[in-house]
Amino acid sequence: RRTWVAAQVDVIRGYGKSLDLFEITIRIAVLLLGAYSIYLMYCESCKDEYYELAKTLRAAAVDAMTATRGSAGAEAAVLICMVWLLTVLWMRQRPKVYLVDFKTYRHATVGGDPKNTAGEAVGYDKFLDVSRIARHTDGANCFTERSMEFQEKIIRTSCIGEKSIFPPSIFGEASVASGACAERDFLSMKGAREEAELMMFRAVEDLLIATKTRPEDVDILIVNCSLFCPTPSLSAMIVNKFGMRSDVLSYNLGGMGCSASVIAVDLAAKLLTSADNPNCRAIVVSTENITQNWYRGNDRSMLLSNCLFRCGAAAILLSNRKKDAGKARFRLLHTVRTHMGKSDECYRAVFQEEDDEGVRGV
Hints:
Layout: H1 2-18, H2 21-41, H3 47-66, H4 72-91, E1 97-104, E2 120-121, H5 124-133, H6 145-157, E3 165-166, H7 168-171, H8 173-177, H9 182-185, H10 189-211, E4 220-224, H11 234-242, E5 249-253, H12 260-272, E6 281-288, H13 300-308, E7 312-319, E8 330-332, H14 344-347, E9 353-354, E10 360-361
Parallel strand pairs: 4-5, 4-6
Antiparallel strand pairs: 1-7, 1-8, 2-3, 6-7, 9-10
Helix pairs in contact: 3-4, 5-6, 6-13, 10-11
């Protein structure tokens, strides 16, 4: 019975959102004026009044173009036109989009919340030591000595801090100790899901606390992650974790690389400026997942992702509510999107595929 009642509440809320008081008022006014105009057209005694009205409007237009002071009737006509134009402009205003607040996952060791203990801080030496002993399921070394020299050169010149974090599925004690079983037991769907939960859930939870927003008050949820697109989706994982409403507009974006965050914000802005979504709040979550994308081969271009990428997540709260304008950090003015996919060079710039040995990488 409780589920049935909740479903009916969602239906009623949906109908309520479609009822725009201003639009209803204007439609009624237009219908009444239309009916009155038809009445006047068929009233013989009113034709002289129509003629006088036409003369007044003509005089008002001439006075406006010649900048002369006209009769009271002409001034009234100009005033009515101004009120009408201002009303149209006001009704056509698009809602403003505000960034209320944002949170990024910061590990406790670098000044983050003491609860943020997920992830392994990996220094250069540990990175190299663990990579050197990494094994495939057949017991063969993952990296040749030449590949190790290349990775060491890249990480020591990358300016990436030694307190940046990796997921426990790669550099955790249990994963390292498992040796050749790591690919099967840790670099799996389960390990990738755990990485996503550790990062995304904390970022979203911190954002909800900071903005004093209840999960059921979130109207739109957009999650982007380029390489990890599980079923159920990452957005569904967040809805399930925080118990969001059944009518939340959720979107899961994948395969878009570093541009996905901007695309997600652009999508949120289009939804928030739509007349269908008044007084709404949207959460945009950006993350990347490297558990299943830790390259264990020897192609140099693919080894770059091992050296340059770490794990983390960011969550932002966007709103089109006027009451959030005073406490918002920023207002979104506009977004610009340019897609270079028609160029083969751009299309192949970042590509996920198998190397010559059949090992998948980017």
